[in-house]
Specification:
Oligomer: single chain
Order of helices and strands: HEEEEEEEEEEEHEEE
Distance between the termini: 39 Å
Shape: globular
Largest sheet: 5 strands, mixed
Number of helices: 2
Low-confidence stretches: 4-10, 12-17
Mean pLDDT: 85
Strand content: 25-35%
Number of strands: 14
Length: about 170
């Protein structure tokens, strides 16, 4: 319960400033959502059983059926990894609560579907910055995404190995 209250307070504060910094005092530059440098944490993408048909370009997720991280580009799902594994993942089997059930940052409303929607005309997501995630993240979780500060690439973990994107 304490975590839920902390998240609500964090998100409420973020709506006032339109920028949220996680584990740091303030967001860098034009970041809508920003993380500290030199971390070993990443963003965990949702692992879905059914690819959303109304996804907007830029949507990121992990497909539970083929264990591949994917990004939607103009209504086409582009693979970001080889087939991985979700063998060690515990899934929430409870039913979803009806309604929007999401956080929108950067805008008051949106038509884009998603659990966390970052929508802004002048701010962006800054991924967590991890030096050599394949060496430094000891227990990566399937669907983890971060920015590798050594190779200067986006790194995604598919449950078996890391893939890097320039």
């Amino acid at each position: 319960m304490k975590k839920i209250i902390a998240i609500i307070i964090l998100c409420s504060a973020g709506f006032a400033s339109a920028q949220i910094a996680i584990e740091k005092a303030q967001a860098d530059g034009d970041a809508l959502l920003d993380f500290p440098a030199n971390t070993t944490k990443g963003i965990l993408l949702p692992i879905v059983e059914t690819l959303p048909v109304n996804a907007v370009s830029g949507t990121l997720l992990m497909d539970k059926n083929d264990n591949i991280l994917k990004m939607n580009v103009e209504s086409v799902w582009v693979p970001l990894s080889d087939a991985g594994s979700v063998a060690g993942v515990s899934f929430n089997t409870g039913s979803e609560i009806p309604g929007q059930n999401r956080v929108i940052m950067g805008s008051g409303t949106t038509t884009a579907p998603g659990v966390l929607v970052l929508e802004s005309s002048n701010k962006a997501l800054v991924l967590p910055k991890v030096a050599s995630p394949h060496l430094n993240v000891k227990s990566p979780y399937p669907g983890m995404v971060c920015y590798d500060t050594v190779s200067k690439t986006m790194a995604v973990f598919d449950g078996l190995k890391w893939s890097y994107w320039k």
